[in-house]
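Entry:
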Amino acid sequence: MIVTVTANPSVDRTYRIGTLRPGELHRADDVWAEASGKGVNVGRVLRRLGVPVRMIVTAGGGEGRLLAELLSVAGAELVPVRGATRVNITLLADGLEPTKINEPGTALSTSEADHLIAATAASLAGTRWLACCGSLPGGADPALVRRLITIARDAGVRVAVDASGAALAAAVDGRADLVKPNRDELAELVGRPIDTVTDAIAGGREIRARTGGTVLVSLGADGALLLTEAGGWHAASPPVTPLNSTGAGDALLAGYLADDTARPPARLAYAVSIGASACLAKATADLPDELVDPARVRVRPLHEDAIPGGHP
């Protein structure tokens, strides 16, 4: 069992159009709504991979009722809050990366944060991983992440954190077992630009030295890095033509958490294959019927004097 926590979920509305013409009226070719937020996305992919998962999700207002309806078949536990669940907008236009507008969300009250902690603690029996995913609602105390790490550690459960800003920094300070920054999040953590794979390796090693755990860095088209106590690896995905790359990093994390038995290089190859596969589905953080073959993912070990991949 894997438990995911999403303190700031969303209802995601995606609009697919043809050519983007700023300042002009557009009529969408396709529109759909999904329950989202990183923990929801990770949980959705884990379920598609056949991994038992429980999702702890806050929900409030009319949007929260829609979120509950969208999650009704997913086995989520909803923690009621007074603030309305946020709505995020994704615009898919021909030839462009997805354009996203994300609402900040409403801060949790002290009692709501306590309820979220209690609901998580009650779900940890028999759990392999607790995945704390996504941003915190606007104004939320980053100490919430450290509290989640503490209750999991007390229960003997490993903690993975995929977040940003103060929440990710709190996970590093709390020495989470695994942190999964993307390129921009890693740059914010180390306080310098991450322009190349070489930069990412140096930044990832710096963060691993601070946590003592595993660092999984998603680099989009440049693949992913895995840095562990046993060593480091860079993986490059085979070329794919994405339909929707939103949530690919969440799928990467789900793929990594799905199997604890594989050796790190094989585990990274599988994770990257799942992240690449998610780009081939229309819906966010979904998987197509045919997955990218992990054997097509190139994985190379990192060495201090020879960095595979070099500059992207």
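The chain has a mean pLDDT of 92.
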